[in-house]
Amino acid sequence: MQRSTFWLPVLVFGLGLALSLFSCEHAPMGMDEDITPIDTTGNNNPDTTGTDTTNMGTPCDPDVVYFEWDILPILRSNCALSGCHDEITHEEGVILTTYAKVMETGEVKAFNPGGSKLYRMITDNDPEDRMPPAPNQALSSSQISLINKWILQGAKNETCDPDAGLCNTENVSYVQDIQPVLQNNCRGCHSGNTPSGGILLDTHANVAAIANSGRMYGAISWQSGFVRMPLGAVNPLPQCTVDKIKAWIDAGAPNN
Ligand code: HEC
To answer: Ligand 1 center to residue 55 CA distance, Å?
Structure first.
């Protein structure tokens, strides 16, 4: 008796809320599904809040499923909505807003999708028990297989640098792109009255002469037969920088 009097208003309120707001309903997914294919390249716009930045500069491996770029966006847009599995509502204690919370409250077992509550929830055959529950649509098969793959890969929280794969080598400008690199990495040794190796990288004409001789690219790409530049560096310049310099040289080392 007490129980039902307590639940009735809750039920009515809940129903009203559901009908008016379609809370927990994901228009975003259902509608975007066909328009926005799942991006497994890791090139989505990352939400860098709380992201480990130690791997910045590491290009994303297209075969690796990255929690932050690939999985969290799915959970965020389909499950972590207000009224479902956000921090405040946390239906059944499940919170799907951060890696730690997903692992813990979604009971994710690395390498074992079938043993992971999160995976069982999204693949449950009963639409009432499945997450997101009816009348919401189930996650798409590509989203489910991405989550499956992520768990099979160890449900890790690895990061990568999406920008590293998006190096723009078009219309490289000497003034904007090349000069600053030379200034910061090379001119300390390759300018003045006694430039290292007799190589001057000060004026555009001098830089272009070295570039067109093939020695510049040979040296910065650490090809055998060339002295590795910048001298004494443990790692070569970032790949994107090397690629830009190459594109500029290939374009004839213009003074643009
Ligand atoms: C710490 C000093 C130093 C820095 C920094 C440095 N270089 Fe050098 N570079 C040298 C020296 C010394 C040589 C001559 C090496 C030799 O002949 O053994 C040299 C040689 C070269 C050569 C000729 C290489 C060859 O094998 O023909 C090129 C090209 C060159 N540097 C370009 C660069 C560029 C581009 C940068 C910046 C990205 C750079 N260097 C940064 C000291 C430096």
So the answer is: 28
